Amino acid sequence: HSRWPGLIAAYRDRLEGAADWEPVTLFEGGTPLVPATHLSELTGCEVYLKVEGANPTGSFKDRGMTMAMTDAKYRGQKAVLCASTGNTSASAAAYATRAGMECAVLIPQGKIAMGKLAQAVMLGAKIIQVEGNFDDCLELARKVTSDFPEVGLVNSVNPARIEGQKTASFEICDVLGKAPDVHVLPVGNAGNITAYWRGYREYYADGVTSVLPRMLGVQAAGAAPLVNGAPVKDPETIATAIRIGAPASWNGAMEAKEQSGGAFRAATDDEILAAYRLVAATEGVFVEPASAASVAGLLAARKEGWLDSGLTVVCTVTGNGLKDPDNALAGMPEVKPIAVDPVAIAHELELA
Ligand code: F0G
Fold first, then answer.
1. What's the CA dihedral at 172, 174, 180, 185 to 10 degrees?
2. Pick from 30, 313, 17: nearest CA to 181
3. What is the ipTM of this complex?
4. Cα 328 to ligand 1 centre (Å)
């Protein structure tokens, strides 16, 4: 086996503009597609988890960022900016560092998981907290980068981001030897569902695959503009990564849903938290709450008969559970380690 070369090198000929690039890379992509034994039993489907928390900064954003930052490098940009609920900022900070560029991130006040903030700090981003939510941050980022074109905007409104993120679909088809029947993923700003759908369509158009999956986009109930059919003014959810009321890629998400015969659905915070614990406890995969929305959506959709048993289903779990330790510990009884001496440990083990 040769070493995974990073996604630009792996899929160069399928990435717009990347033919001659020397990538800014942390060897992102090539993430595990894990058979989900328990979820498969629960649903009667063949369920896989695409574990995007295994990317270098712990989320799928790295797929878009290797492309966006390489593009920025070739444009001669010296600084980049993004709005972020956390993961984009961690990824932008890491790739800007690789590229030798300055990075500033606009984050919504008080609504970003601790692990993500720690990453952005350690990776040297200038962190600007905005009095407002993600939608306010993105509006500001768009304005600043249009006033100062020398600063690159690395949100998913940057076409290079979507190009990079579509490679997750290629990887899934490459591993399965076919496209899944259904693809489920959490939706916030809607860049990722747009990217996955593009990836599936391209493989299908080139005859690499012979079916197109139905796309199921899952939003948090308190931040579900695509489900409601209208922007949400004050989005609220425990899944802060997808606390977004006015998705930038609205049209891309609608296209994915309509062209694929798919659906959007909402998951309540309780459903998200239940799925969050279930995936960790039964599959051994620790994801962040927003990522568990996909699993919550899958379970509800199956229960309601939206999908039949026997189908092949891929669920993208978008970010690593370590990003959000507060939510992991919040629902738990207080963790009190038991202090024992070595003899007592031996005793304990014998009892067990
Ligand atoms: N899951 C996680 C863990 C995310 O961080 C995000 C988006 C999504 C799902 C939704 O993806 O926006 O493409 O629909 N996070 C962005 C950020 C907004 O700033 O990190 P989307």
1. 10
2. 313
3. 0.99
4. 19
Q: Please indicate whether residue 319, judged by its CB atom, sits closer than 6 Å to ligand 1.
A: yes
* Model confidence pLDDT, tens digit, residues 108-119: 999 999 999 999
- The answer to whether the CB of 194 is under 6 A from ligand 1 is no
Q: Is 290 in the pocket of ligand 1 (CB under 6 A)?
A: yes
Torsion sign over Cα 147, 81, 69, 320: negative
Q: 193 CB contacts (<8 Å, ≥6 apart)?
A: 185, 187, 215, 217, 249, 252, 253, 256
CATH architecture of 7-59+161-330: 3-Layer(aba) Sandwich (3.40)
Closest residue by CA, ligand 1 atom 15:
241
State in words which class domain 61-158 has.
alpha beta
State pLDDT tens for residues 250-283: 999 999 999 999 999 999 999 999 999 999 999 9
Mean pLDDT of the chain: 96
